[in-house]
Amino acid sequence: MHAPTAATRLAAVIGTPVRHSLSPVLHNAAFAAAGLDWVYVALEVAEGRVPEALAGARALGVGGLSVTTPHKEAAADACDRLSPDASLLHAVNCVVPDGDELVGHNTDGPGFVAALGADGFDPQGRACVVLGAGGAARAIALALARAGAAEVSVVNRTRARAEQAVALVGGAGRVVEPGAAASVVADAALVVNATTVGMGQPAAGDVPVDPELLHAGQLVADIVYRPLETPLLAAARRRGATVVNGVPMLVHQAAEAFRLWTGVPPPVAAMASSVEHLLAGS
Q: Which positions are annotated as active-site residues?
C-alpha cells in the first residue's frame, strides 16, 4: 500500500465484527493497480450506530463505503437515496457520495452474475436453484431473474422468507419446500448455496443439499470463501459438476463498488490475485 498524502481519498468498510474483512486487501490492491491515490480501511461500527457512521462519512468527505453484516438494512434506512436494486432488497452494501447526498447501492447480485460470466456460465434460459433466503440469497435470486433465468427456485427452511425472495423474482420465481427440493436440484443447471452451511471449519457432512442430486453438466456455486472448498463443493466436484467458490462473487461485487466510487474500470485480475494469495496462505 502506498504512503497516504494530504490528497489521499478514503474509503472504508463498516460492520461488526469487521477485523476479519478481506475488503481492505481487495480495494487497496485495486487502487494500487489503477494508480489511484486512495486508501481503504476497516471501521468497526456497533449496531444502532449506522446513522452516525454515515453522517460522519458525509462530514469527512469519505469517497465510498462498503457495508457488511449486520448493517445492510440499517444503511438502507440511513442513506438519502437508494438504487432500484437496493430499494427492492432494502439492503445496502455500497454507499456512494453524490454531492452532499449518500446513495445506497447493492452490488451483491450483479457481482454474482458477473462472477458466473467470468466462469463462462450464462443464466439466460436456464433453471437455477438458490439455497437460502437471506439478504445475499435475495440479491442473487433477483440478479438471476434479471439475467433471464427461465426458473429461479428458492429453497429455504422458513417458507415466509422464501416467499419474500420469490416476490422479488417475478414470474420465474418458485418457492420449494426443502422436502421437495430433490427434483429441482437434480434438474437445475445452476445450484447456489447462499446459506452459511459449510462456513468456517465444517465437518465433511456439512452440506445444504444431498450430494447425490448433483452431477456433471451442472455448475455448483457457494458464496462461502472460507474454506475455499466447502464440503458441498468437494462433493459436487466428486460428482462431476463444475464448481465455483465465493471468491469470484466477493471480487466482482467489490469491483462494481470500485467502479461506482471512482468511475474507473476495476482491475479485477489484481483484486482476485490479492485475495486468492491471502486465502491460500490462511
A: 72
